[in-house]
């Protein structure tokens, strides 16, 4: 298979689009598998890692998040999020406090949870940083810009279906 970058066309033909989509999806899947492998090495599953990272990323923002917020932001089913949060609560990593509407509870990392999450998330961030070191600044900017453009175009396409 030719490298996608060797094609210089103003419009992509059907075969090139198929090749690009297939290659992109395989790469995306392999990256997901690497995150899953990391999660397993830390005694978690992929979903638990995603939820832990979400909670950790926002624990210093002074914003309060509920299970509903996690479901909406990560596109996960309520039962799955509840199961993960319950497990974190049983391990003493999170505490739940009543929210304004009383139907939901705000989720906070405990001190034990902050220590636990910091070790896992900082190591993952370091691995990603090391990976980015393989790229030059211009490549990083172009990659991120392209992914953002792809995400917006895909969202528009899905919303118009």
General description of the model:
The chain is mainly alpha-helical. The chain has a single domain, classed as Winged helix-like DNA-binding domain superfamily/Winged helix DNA-binding domain (Arc Repressor Mutant, subunit A), CATH 1.10.10. The chain contains 6 helices and 3 strands. It has a 3-stranded antiparallel beta sheet. A hairpin with a 6-residue loop joins strand 2 (94-98) and strand 3 (105-109). Helix 3 (67-74) crosses helix 4. The protein is globular and about 55 Å long.
Give the SSE map.
Blueprint: H1 14-41, H2 46-58, E1 65-66, H3 67-74, H4 78-90, E2 94-98, E3 105-109, H5 111-132, H6 137-159
Helix pairs in contact: 3-4
Strand and helix order: HHEHHEEHH
Based on DSSP secondary structure assignment, what is the total number of beta strands? 3
Q: Give the name of the CATH architecture.
A: Orthogonal Bundle
- Can you identify the CATH class? Mainly Alpha
Give the number of domains.
Answer: 1
* Helical content (DSSP H or I, runs of 4+): 55-70%
**Fraction of residues in β-strands:** 5-15%
Oligomer: single chain
**Average pLDDT metric:** 90
Structural class: mainly alpha
Q: Tell me the radius of gyration.
A: 19 Å
Number of helices: 6
Query: CATH superfamily name?
Result: Winged helix-like DNA-binding domain superfamily/Winged helix DNA-binding domain
Strand order of the largest sheet: 1-3-2
- Terminal-residue CA separation: 31 Å
Coarse shape? globular
* Poorly predicted sequence stretches spanning 5 or more consecutive residues: 1-9
CATH topology: Arc Repressor Mutant, subunit A
């Amino acid at each position: 298979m030719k490298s996608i970058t060797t094609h210089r066309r103003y419009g992509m033909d059907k075969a090139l689009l198929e090749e690009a989509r297939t290659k992109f999806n395989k790469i995306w899947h392999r990256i997901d598998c690497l995150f899953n492998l990391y999660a397993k090495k830390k005694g978690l599953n992929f979903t638990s890692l995603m939820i832990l990272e979400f909670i950790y990323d926002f624990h210093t923002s002074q914003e309060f998040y509920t299970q509903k917020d996690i479901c909406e932001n990560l596109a996960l089913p309520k039962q799955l999020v509840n199961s993960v949060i319950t497990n974190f609560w049983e391990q003493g990593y999170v505490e739940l406090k009543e929210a304004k509407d009383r139907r939901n509870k705000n989720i906070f990392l405990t001190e034990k949870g902050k220590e636990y999450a910091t070790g896992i998330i900082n190591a993952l961030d370091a691995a990603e940083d090391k990976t980015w070191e393989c790229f030059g600044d211009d490549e990083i900017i172009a990659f991120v810009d392209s992914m953002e453009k792809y995400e917006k175009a895909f969202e528009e396409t899905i919303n118009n279906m």
